[in-house]
Write a structure and sequence with these properties.
Layout: H1 2-31, H2 40-59, H3 61-71, H4 76-89, H5 95-110, H6 117-130, H7 136-164, H8 167-188, H9 191-205, H10 210-214, H11 221-226, H12 230-241
Helix pairs in contact: 1-2, 1-4, 2-4, 2-6, 5-7, 6-7, 7-9, 8-9, 8-12
Amino acid sequence: MVVQERRALLHGGLREVVTDHPVNKVRPGILASPHDAFLRTPNQAQNDHRKRVNRIRDIVRYLEQVHVSRCSVCSVHKFGVPLFRDEVSRHGDVQPKLQECRLQTMSRGREGKMVDKLSVKNACQMLGKLGVNSRSVYEEDFERPFLARSAKFCALESQKQLAEKSAIDYIDVAEQRINEETQRAKLYLDPGTEHLIQQVVYQELVASHVNAIVAQEDSGVVAYLKNQKVGDLTRIFRLRERPQRSNGVCE
């Protein structure tokens, strides 16, 4: 009985130690990190946390084998790994700032500005790991808000470009945007996001404006038919009917 009580005390102490680090050191450290390091700091912190939990697990392996099985309590690894998700990445003080940092970084890349692609990729992979065999954390903390912001950006871009460009020049813009978003997704987002961002861009730039593109007085379908511009007509209808090629990029 005494041995069992000591095991319980030791295991309880381990939980406190494992919990204290992300709550009182990692979280404040991330919040205090400079803006240009805010995206990469959580990923490094999460890797360090997993290593720390694994080291503690290895040190108390015998206690884990005996106490966990006999007393039906969570192992250090089982309760330690999700701590980073709950107490750091998705904590109320951290989650909104991290999410906005990711979205702003994607917006800068979309505008042609320099971004730390590796940090973006690592940040997305970190969210995948925090989901523990599920995309739920990645979807909720990044993918859904990213797609929503992308839709808003493309809707505004379509209005501006339609007012300024001919039909075929607008098609150039739409094709280029689909290609850029596809390549960006391939480089550093979860594979499941690629098809979704293609759909968003196509919907906002092409599907929502098909009639306006076709009906342009000087450069729409009627004008191209009159002037026998077969190549331009082909491009318009190809983009309309097949927004995504088999390789995911408009040719």
